[in-house]
Every structure is written in C-alpha cells, then in structure tokens.
Amino acid sequence: MYRVMATGLVTVSLCGSGVIQAEEFVLSKQTKPVSQAVSLALDPSKENFSGSTDIKIQVLEKTRVIQLNGVDYTATNIQLTGQQACEMTAKMLDTGIVNLVCKQEIKPGSYNLHLDFTAPFNRQSVGLYKTVDAGVPYLFTQFEMSDARRSFPVFDEPGYKIPFQITITAPSTEKVYANTPVVSTKVEGDKTTHVFAQTKPLPSYLVAYTVGQFEEVAIEGMKIPGRVITTKGKIELAQYAVKEMPAILGALETYFGVDYPYQKLDSVAVPDFPFGAMENAGLVTYREDILLLDANSANQNTKQSSVSVVAHELAHQWYGNLVTMEWWNDLWLNEAFASWMAAKVTHQLHPEFESDLSLSKNRVMSLDARLSTKPIRKPIRNEADIMDGLGLAYSKGSAVLSMVENWIGEESFKQGIRQYIKDNAFKNTQADDLWNALSKASGKDVGKVLSTFIEQSSYPLITVDVKGKSLTLSQQRFAFEGSKAPAQTWVVPVSIKYGKGDKVISTSILLDSDTKTLELEFTPDWIYPDADAMGYYRWLLDDKQLANLLANAKTKLTARERKALISSADALLDGGFISAGDLLAILAEFIDDAHPQIVSSALNYLKIQKMTFIDASNEAQWAKFISAKARVAIDKYGLVAAPGESIEISKLRPSLIAILAFEGKDKAVISEAKSASLAYLAGDKSIDAYLIGTQLKIAVYFGDNSLIQKLKKEFEVTKNPQKRTNLMYALGYAADPKQQKAMLDYSLTDKLNSPDLKYIMSGQTYTHARKSIFRDWVYSNYEAVKAKLPPFAVAMLPNYTGTGCDLKALDRTNIFFESKLESSPEFTRTLAKLNEKVNICVKLKTREQASVNTYLQKL
C-alpha cells in the first residue's frame, strides 16, 4: 500500500485534477531541485525507519503543485519556506509521483521543501532493504532504476543531478557507510550520528548507504582511499578483489585520461542482491559471490567474472556517474558502454582469460530478430519499459560499439570518448552527444551508422555474391523463416576476410545502400564475411561458398571467428537457408576443433537443437548422438585434469561430463560426481574447482534424499559465497517428484533471500516430467512466488511456465497469466514475446523434424 499524508492537514486527492501537468510517470518541470539533505534513523534490528529531508528547490513558474517521487513512505510536517511559506498536503499516485499542494499559488523563486517521513524496510531487495545473514541483520540500498523514492522523498529522475548530503543515526554497535567519507560523528546514549560529506552532483539512483556489523579491509595502490566491506566472517575472501581493484581502476584512468572523480572507492559484498552489482558513486555494491572468492581454490571462470564485473562497475564511474544520461531511454548506452569497456580492460589485464572469445552478440541476436523485440533506444515511461529488453541492451549495445570502434579505429574511438568525458563532466547528456564526439575525432559519420542499429530492432542479413574478383553485398532484414518482417535497411560496416592458398587478406566496406560492389585483390577460394567477428549482422553465402568456407575454417579462421561462424550457422537454420540436418552436420565437424572453447560452443548448440527436436520417437538416438560427440572430446582430453593441462580444457570438461551423465547415464561419471560432492561438503579443497558445480547437479539429480539433506545443511551454514551459489544451483536438480516439490517449497522459506529464488528455478526445466511438476507448483504458489521475487522479476514468470515448443503449456500459461493482467499489466509484453518465441519454435520443429530424424538415423 502506497500512502503519503500530512499530519493535521486534509489529504487532497488530485487524480484527474487540472493542476497536474506532467506526463503520467514523469515529473512536472515546474520545479527543479538544487541540492538535498537527508537525515535517517536506521536500526537493522527494527522493521521500520524514520527520517527527514530538506530539498533546496527552484520554482520555475507559478504553480500550486510541487511534484516529487514516493513509494511506501508516510510523510508528515510538509513545509515550504522561502519567498513565501506554505503548509502542504499530499497525494501519492499509483505512478510513483507525489503531488504536494499549496492552497495559494507559489511564485517562481528559491525555496526549501521539508518533509518528515517513516517507512518499512523493504524485504525484496529494492529501495532501502533489510536482510539477515548468519543471524545478523543488515541494511543495504538498491535505487536503480526508480527505487530511491522508497527510501526518502526525492526527485527520482536521472536528469536531476544534484549534490546530496546524508546523515545517518544508528546503534553504536553498527558500522555505517555512504557515498562519501564521514566528516563528523556524535554519540548520544547508545546511538551514533554519522554526518557524511556532501556528494558531487549525482542522480538519485546513485545515492547509497549501508548499515550493519561489517568487516573491512583497506585497498592499497589507488590514488584515493578504498575498502572492501563484507558481512561478518567473510573478510578473508576479499583479498582477490583487493589485489585486482587498483589495476582495474588504473587501466580505466589511463583510458579515459581523467582520474577517478570521487573522494573514495568502497566496495560492498552484499549477500542479498538482485543484480550482479551496482555502480553507486564511491560505494559500489556487488553480489557477494562476484566480489568474494578464495584465490587459491577458485577457478578461472570465477576470477574472470569478478574482474569483468568490477571493471564494468568502475567504468560506470565515468560513463554513467560523471556523465549521466538525461533520461532512461539512453540507459542502454550506459550499460552497453560499461560492458564494452569491461571486456577491453579484462582482456588487457588478463589475456590468459581469453575473454575476447566471449561474443556478446551470440547471446542475443536470436532475440533481437523477433518481431516483438523493440529497439534498444526507445521511449521510456516507467520501470517496466526500462526492464523490457535490458539484457539485450547490454549485449547488442556493446557489440555495436565494438563494430564501430573497429570501423573508425581504436585511437579515434578513445580520443572521442576522452573529449566527451571532459566536455560533459558532472552533466547530463543524450546519445547524440557521444556520436558527435566520435564523429569529430574520427572524421566519419558515426551517428549515421549507430542510429540504424540502435533506433530499430533486428539487424541486416548480408548476402554475399562472388564472381571472380568482384564481390557484391546486398542487405535485407534478417527474419525467422515464415515471419512477415517489415523492410529495413542499415548503414553497416562490413569486414571481409578471404583467401587463396596461403594468402589471406582482410578488407572492409561501409554498406550504406541496398547493394554495393567492391573489387578484391584476387579471386578467392573462400570468403568469410565477418572478419574478426566484429559485425552485428548475419551473412549468407551460396552453397558452394559455404562449403569452401567450412573446409578452410579450422585452418584459416581464428578461434573467435570460428565461434562466430557456429552461431551464424545456427542463424542460417532459423532463417530457412539450411536444413536442421545440415546444421547438425556442421556442428559435428567442430567437435574435434583444436580450441576447447569451440568444442564447447558446438556442443551447446547441439544441445539447443536437441531441446527443439527431441520427442519420444528419437530420444534414444539423441542421447546416443550427443554422448558419442562428447566421448570424442573426452577421449582426447580425459575425464580428469592432467598435470599442466590448458585451463581451456578444464573449462570444457564440465560440459562433457554433464552430457555423459545426463544423456549417457554413465555410471562411473555419476558415481564420481557423488563422491566428489560428499568430499566438497566435507571441506576437501583438492576437488576440481571447474567440475564441482556440475558434479553437484549430477549428484542431486541421481542421488537420494539423504544427499539432498546434506547439501541443504551445508547451504544453510556456509560462509563461502561461491559454495553457497554452487549448492543453490544444484538443489534445483532434485529428480524425485516428492523431493522436487519439497525443494521448491523450501525456496519460499526464509532460508533463501529474494534474489535466490531464480537459482532454484533454473534447474527445473530438465526433463518434460520435471517441467510439468514445476509449472503446477508455480500456478499453485503464484502469490507466494510473486511476493518472494524482486518486483522487477515478477514480469518474467510466464517464461518459466510456457517456454519451449509446447503449445499446450503455452495455452495454459496464457490462460493463467491473462487472468492476472488487471493487477499485473507487466505480463502483457512478456506473454506477447513468449507466444512469438514458442510459435517460432513450433514452426521450426514442424518444418525440420524429418530432416533431423533422417540425419540421426544415418549415424
């Protein structure tokens, strides 16, 4: 229930009143904030908090209404002082806007707006929220996108970038942190008041504070002070972050040509966090299993994830914090740039991670091609609009930025970014401001390219026609076979690699029309239309050219290019250009690739095809086929790590043993997984860190209730975030129906935090029977699941019950969630996307099932 009231005053409802001049979810521009002071009384042992705020504002035109944002709090003593005084009444709208009303007209000028307020601590990991870790309560904040308004009255839009001053009174037993250093403390009885320095101009979503019985360790080697902060008993796991943070920050300062812009850099490991991390200026928060790890036992995947996420959040300190979007329609660029920058820094500092093989475009191009997908730069009204396609924004945006950097050159791109940061420090900008800076630095029309990729969905299909030395490119929108997509064109930098014998050449062309022709240096034996895998497009060769490319791929293409080639082959099936049997044959050829990551990619795409085409008639053939392919790699690399083997082999092996266990029902692999899991629970640190996550899932799936109870017991007491996450994922694989239901019920207890539910749910889709049980459970426990999930995650629930190629499951999903639309309209767009996705899958299965069966029968 959302409410705001003024004590001793009549609450005025303004719904439908002519004095409301703002858009439904956007604040009126009659008033703007100049600075804000917030005082809070916070005690983690309580369920509620209180506070007061003073906001310096400017009234820009005559009005009786001042609008700000609010959710969940109750306000009293609302006073406007300055050129005139007014006791104000208030009405909170269901849009998150609060109308503060003065009986007389307020003249333009400078004023102070004061409010006292009380509110409950949130328990769904948004706003100012409470969580309990090992029996100890803590308070954290998560304000992006629009949840600062849950903690205090505020102009909660990114365009209002102002200084904030935070004061927090808490029990003296608690430590308190905020964006800036403490300037003074005062002890009164058993409470201490902490006064923090005023921030530099920030949007409200970057304000942060935390209260609890924390531990901390200083970070040395940075130009500003910094700490890693953890809940009790975990500080020894902070050393990897302490070591890596200075190098990451230094690399970013060098790239931007500007020092880190804030007074300190604290990093908080949060046990209950709905996202991976949050870039709050000076007080960055991370899900603890990302920031905390045992460097001696953690595998390289874990270390790479930690470095990459830290680099992402620290890149935001310049792009997003120092320079901030004017409105949420450019959030895509905030996240895309940080993802792009993180990939660059991670590869620079740790080339051994081979993070350049993590192609973000491969993860999202199928989604982007659907008709229901919106552009990543689109009109934004509310948080539901922001969350719609946010994952696409990260991956597509960073891939497009990589393509543009490749086109204009690394140095020009860097110089454009540096000038953009210097020109707009502590200001708000729009995407065009960056395009203009990059265009000026490079002498190329960057906006002309980017607008076609950012302001429309999907991407081009580049058809390549080679006649002698003449190469003709033509473009059209990529679409799934049978989809009636609108005609679209792009301005697209196309990079081409071609060869003859030992000679290999790369060239590029800007395709800014429907068709374009260029002359090659020689008549090629083969051609690859995505040199360095930098293009955000798909390509189409004729049958002969495709065969020639595949024949030369393993010797002439880089590992990055081969990985992109596998993804492109999968897209050719989606577009109806090759058969499913053809795709299976292509994927099978890469199982013995020299690079383990390419083997892993080929196996993953085989498993995707299996999910689409498996049925009762071919289930045994699929298991035999995929197990045989995994066995090829196992015979080459072995079931256990060999001394001195490549880490890339260690990264591949979990995929192989998962196939042998789940598909091949290999008794030896299953037995070893159970033994390793028991040793892991007992604290054996010699366990293979790459295998144990998969072995735990195998052990739970093929194990008995006794083993599951042992995992649950360890899950509830471990202080190692990596171990806790491994155990959560595994517990979602309980196979016995009674055990599966018991685990799902367990996920709704207070043993799991709000964001943890997704880990248990992620394992429920393995096997048709388990999917069915899971769907029934979601429907039966809908209200409890909805109450447990973070609010923004509720909209995704239909994806758990209706995905795949199952029209009956989709129909039931539609019936169930359509009945909820009046109270939960966020399901509307989820259902539209889900229906398109499932129907695409059904059409593909209908079209290609015979081709798959023919291929499998030939084996």
TrEMBL record:
Its EC number is 3.4.11.-. The keyword Zinc-finger does not apply. The record marks 394 as: Transition state stabilizer. One of its GO terms (molecular function) is alanyl aminopeptidase activity. Zn(2+) binds at residues 312, 316, 335. SUPFAM superfamilies: Leukotriene A4 hydrolase N-terminal domain, Metalloproteases ('zincins'), catalytic domain. One of its GO terms (biological process) is proteolysis. Belongs to the peptidase M1 family. This is Aminopeptidase. The lineage of its organism: Bacteria, Pseudomonadati, Pseudomonadota, Gammaproteobacteria, Alteromonadales.
